[in-house]
Amino acid sequence: MKLELKGITKRFGSLVANDHIDLVVEPGQVHSLLGENGAGKSTLMNVLYGLYQPTEGTILVNDKPVTFSGPGEAMASGIGMVHQHFMLVPVFTVAENVALGNETVGAGGLLNLSETRTRIRQISDQYGFDVDPDAIVEDLPVGVQQRVEIIKALVRDAEVLILDEPTAVLTPKETDELLGIMGQLKADGKSIVFISHKLREVKAVSDVITVIRRGKVVGTAEPGASTTELASLMVGRSVSLTLQKAPAAPGEVTFSVRDLTVRAANGQNVVDGLSFDIAQGEILAIAGVQGNGQTELTEAIMGLQEHVSGSITLDGEELLGRSVRDVIKEGVGFVPEDRSVEGLVGTFSVAENLILNRYDEAPFARGLTMRPAVIEKNAQEKIAEYDVRTQSASAAAGTLSGGNQQKVVMAREFSRPLKLFIASQPTRGVDVGSIEFLHKRIVAERDGGTPVMIVSTELDEVLELADRIAVLYRGRLMGIVPADTSRDVLGLMMAGMHADEALAQATELQGGDQ
Amino acid sequence: MSTVTTAAPDRSAAPAGAVRSWKTPILLSVLAVVALLVFGAGAPRNNVTFRLSDPNDAIVLPDLVLPAAATGWLTAVVLAALAVLAVLAVRRGSAVPVWLVAVFAVLFLIGFLTWVVGSANNPNVALYGLLAGSVTLAVPLIFGSLSGVLSERSGVVNIAIEGQLLFGAFAAAVAASVSGSAIVGLFAAALAGVIVSFLLAVFSIRYIVNQVIVGVVLNVLVSGLTGFLFSSVLSKDAETWNSPPRLPVLSIPVLSEIPILGPILFEQTIVGYLMYIAVAVIYVALFRSRWGLRTRAVGEHPKAADTLGVNVNRMRFMNVLLAGVVAGVGGSFFTLVSVSGFGRDMTAGQGYIALAALIFGRWNPIGAFFAALLFGFATNLSNVLSLLGTPVPDQFLRMLPYVVTVFAVAGLVGRSRAPGASGIPYVKG
To answer: Contact B305/A88, CB-based, under 8 Å?
Structure first.
């Protein structure tokens, strides 16, 4: 099936999310859409899938114009979509999820799920998915849930599959498996639209690459193009993908974690016996696939978790059992993973958000009153220093773009002397230009002699920033390895292999290749 | 590469050393101690008579005569043993089994009944009447909580059950009086429930007003409106407007003669039979039909349903209207079965109790049915006991179901999990 988009424009009020986009997906082709977060890739796909109506432009299927008033019609035309956030009902079984909207009904309107089960088994066997139709979706690992999403599309005879940032939640190994599955689907004559901002994956799997920036198609590229070329096309200027940083000069160890265990409400240890140290002037990056205890680890340090045991010391002081306020007063700076919920108060102004951790101290407060003039002046300084793009200091923080919001959070945390800096996903959803800037600030903090802990699920970021890398898997430490460890080894560790084992296996594999 | 598996955390098995919940064993232990002290040590020294059937029935069962002290001690000791088992289970790191809690509850009830009836001035109670009466009292509650199931499973919180019941009761009374036919009253009640539901649906789904607030406002509106019409129209000419014929009791021959169960199942008005049918039909439809699958999907993860071509808001709208039919019919119980005629605010908060039954019954039609029965039983028990003259003031007995609800909702019988998107309006994009 041939799919063509002609002059698709989508406006939300005054915002132009897609601006006259043209795109042709040939049968049996993997067509990648490359672009930064917020470039308009997902909007475009939602238009294609019938979730949004285009303001202008036409969609052609096999050269015939079509309009989709809803996803049902898009599916009927042979378009299937795997959303970035899975569209699965967590309490349903796999079969129920697959059947939903496409049910086989027997006498009296009663469901006939056995036919759905058979179809699932068929597809599962054909592509080696290993999916049990009767498993409850919320009990399945993320990688398997994704396969359920693919099955959902295949059961509806999709000819074009849209995969929206499918690798964001996967381990390197699962990513490889997914790329393999995409190959199989392509061999079966299906077309795939692969949306990603990860250059390596895009290069590995695409037949054609279309780059989108600020809602416009800015060019197409062959998969043979170099990463720097693709990156500058994506960002619109030449970017240095590698951070210039001096080697670390670790000083005294001031931050220690011993046997840290966090138990979740369901009784499982989400952080399980972690011990590590961070020296002054050193960045320890915590790598791992999302949901392997990183959130709980940072929150335990900040005093945001219950059921914590072990010990966390900073400059010899025990932090465990202290209130969040106490921990902040001890000199711990914290950038939480979800800035819009935990890092900022969206309805507060930028100026107010910049003093959220010091609003009651001099010079921002005197007695019971706050001093608006001082707060405003502080805001002006920080906005200039961090190049925060905002209409004014009194604009609500929630109206800023992701990168600018993160700059506000960072500016706040760096605006006082720190004894420890923790950042969780510091550049998630941030444009490449801002990433460079934020990374430099983090390295500057390190060079100033602060122990730094970075949690990131993006391997690129980990490799970029880290002086040492700790890998978490199911709440356990798989080992702490030097920053120059290969991606293969880290990938194996992220899938649950201990450092020495992973090293041995990676060496063995390389030996076999030669 | 064979050792490497997928990396997402396995959440199915709780390892040893889990965060143990001591709530259940502590509660069971306290209740066991109460049982030992009250049912055992505090037992009256006489026999308790439970009459199992009406002497006029075709099949007459002999009376059940129990020595109060021996029965009390026996149940108390077994309860204590169950409590110990619960403590041991939690110590081992596993959860308290559901059967244990269920057996405990039943035994506690037996012990309590024996004690409270034994302590009465006349230690003789008609068990068949007690049970049949419980079911009768539970009828509007069951309709109410089924209405809640329909609405909340699709993602709309239905606080307006009270208003639907009350308006149903009012409409049934007026329509039946004017037409002279109770059946017409029944249809009018369903229509009245739909009207309240329609307002709820329009405001909460179309205009995205907070669902709880709309529900409460509707309840107040219906109360005010019916109250006004009652004093300005109904009570001025009760002959025309407020003297509905009652629905006849339809006994099914032979089956209604079965001791104890006969009167409960086969000696009901049409509203009573509709209730049993509604429980069964809604249960099967919810978990076995296409409509049910879509309803649950829309209530759990509306966006997922939307991306599969299910019209979320239409689905919700229809479900809320259907909920109105069910609650409206339940409302007719007050004026066509219970008493003949409408009274100001005669539903007296039963809609809210239906809401509690819905939660207690975990948003499941059958669970809600049994939860509502429990409330009906407690209410009827307090009625019966106040006639027998018991040592416990009947206000305390009337508190019993609510105390039970609080404990139950607090997690005595496992966690009660609401539909994921209940109360959250669905907006595209």
So the answer is: no
